[in-house]
Design goal:
With 319 residues, the chain is an alpha+beta fold. It has 15 helices and eight strands. Strand 4 and strand 5 form a beta hairpin. Helix 4 packs across helix 15.
Length: 319
């Protein structure tokens, strides 16, 4: 269901603006705060200290724009700006920006249905009582989620940031807004220019260099299989299995990209943190098996993503 919007208006020679009206029980500042605290941001995200605004450059319709989201009560204002010296965004560009904002914040979800679905048992009742109506907040795109998951796996944050910067500056697009330069995350096409030996010389491990030069080719060789837009309408388990076919992508990365990158509303990440939280409610022994965990959360379909989000909040004692 599309997010209701006000008419698109011209704010300047380079900017269009509109206002979104998310479904009931939407809290923009809470969603922005979660994005910041959950690792779903990168060097391009600029977030206000009070979490009332979130802005960054994004790629839409094969162009790059600056998008600024500002929360005001229950509504969200979208301002879309073209780079210095570029033509103003079109109405089609604004439609793409609205769709992007919706995906990042799940603005169009029927939260009444989510609540009804999660009230399937006592565990779900506890999740709803403690955390409803919080909504999952997601990565800017599935591609960025995938690249970040591959680069950041099993390395310390300082090195991860160094590798991010290297990839963007050497293979991404440079764009200027208000005289300030930004370096975009390279597209799959751009990353085809990467050479494994160059990546290893820049401190990427042999495995990461292999993954980063293989995954883009796999995606471009089979665009139908890896159509991230189309994946959102597929069964969540099927999506995860497709992503696991990418070189170097394991179950956790596939689930994380599917749940928080696409984003898909019906994916539950299976890992130690979620299993340990589920165990007291569904386990007959000290540990819950993968099969037991999968069976336990199946009742939360088609909103397992929300159950997973709340499970993480419970595990980390968030309110």
């Amino acid at each position: 269901m599309p997010v209701p919007t006000d008419a698109v208006t011209k704010a300047s020679d380079h900017t269009l603006t509109t206002t979104l009206h998310p479904t009931a029980h939407f809290n923009f500042t809470q969603s922005v705060e979660f994005i910041q605290n959950s690792g779903a941001t990168n060097h391009l995200d600029i977030i206000a200290d009070d979490h009332t605004t979130s802005e960054r450059p994004i790629r839409l319709n094969d162009r790059i724009f600056w998008i600024k989201l500002e929360g005001s009560g229950d509504d969200v204002t979208v301002m879309l700006t073209s780079p210095d010296a570029d033509p103003r965004p079109t109405d089609a560009d604004m439609q793409a920006a609205v769709a992007w904002a919706n995906r990042r914040f799940f603005m169009d979800v029927d939260m009444a249905q989510v609540k009804e679905t999660l009230l399937a048992d006592k565990y779900g009742e506890e999740l709803v009582t403690r955390f409803f109506p919080a909504r999952p907040a997601n990565y800017p795109s599935a591609w960025e989620a995938l690249i970040k998951s591959v680069i950041h796996a099993q390395i310390y944050p300082g090195l991860a940031q160094k590798l991010d910067d290297y990839l963007c500056r050497n293979y991404g697009t440079e764009v200027t807004f208000n005289g300030e330069k930004y370096y975009m995350v390279p597209t799959p096409e751009q990353l085809l220019n990467a050479v494994p030996d160059d990546l290893k010389a820049a401190s990427f491990s042999r495995q990461k260099a292999d993954y980063l030069t293989t995954i883009p080719q796999q995606i471009l060789d089979d665009p139908e299989k890896y159509d991230f837009d189309a994946m959102r309408d597929l069964d969540g388990e099927d999506v995860v299995n497709r992503l696991k076919d990418l070189h170097g992508v394991g179950p956790w990365t596939a689930q994380n990209v599917a749940m928080r990158g696409l984003p898909h509303p019906d994916v539950f990440i299976d890992e130690k943190a979620t299993r340990s939280t589920l165990t007291p409610y569904y386990g007959k022994e000290d540990k819950l098996t993968k099969g037991q965990a999968k069976k336990a959360v199946a009742q939360f379909a088609p909103y397992r993503t929300f159950a997973c989000y709340y499970t993480y909040m419970k595990h980390f004692n968030m309110e």
